[in-house]
Design brief:
218 residues; Glutaredoxin; 6 strands; alpha+beta; two-stranded antiparallel sheet; DSBA-like_thioredoxin_dom; oxidoreductase activity
Length: 218
Amino acid sequence: MHIEIFSDFTCPFCYIAKKRLQRAIDALQLQNVTIEYKAYELNPDAPVKTTLYNELLASRMSEAKQQEVMESIRALAAEEGLTYNFETMRLGNTRTLHRLTKWAATKGRADQFVERFMHAYFIEGFDMSNEAEVLAHIDTLGLPVDEARNIINSDAFSEELRRDAYDCQQIPIRSVPFFVFDNRVGIKGVEPLEVFTRTLQQLTPPDSTGASCTDTSC
């Protein structure tokens, strides 16, 4: 099964839904599942210099509403074992991270890359505009830092992002997260675990689950 995940690094629901999908895959012990990350830039014109997430919310809503929004998202995140830290989240331009995801995919490490940087952003106070921080996380993944630095300071993999943007227009996708299963079924947003599980079961051949016993043999 091939699953395309359209997401952005600053979308709090994207990380939650990604973890929920993985929980469904693990529970079903599915084999031969491939995941492809597709770029969706929520704000492609965002400045490179980052700003605190709290400051943006404060400019758009009352303090009471701000707390309500954050607590609602925190509760969803907690269901997936995540402790979101809104006090340290910094919004910025995610284009470089998307280009680096494409680069990591050429090395078979896209899933680890996305997991590391989403965790760093939502929980650890990662500043995506700080090249040294970006490279430090890449180093922890065991990926070549010098190669990553060259990607950052070029427009490499921009064409891949343009193709993703075209795919978003064709489907069409106007919000993320958005999941496409085998080019047949789409799921939008943070759906309950049961929705992901049911979709995976409906699209999975009987022999694609993990090791098991029948009533006649193991």
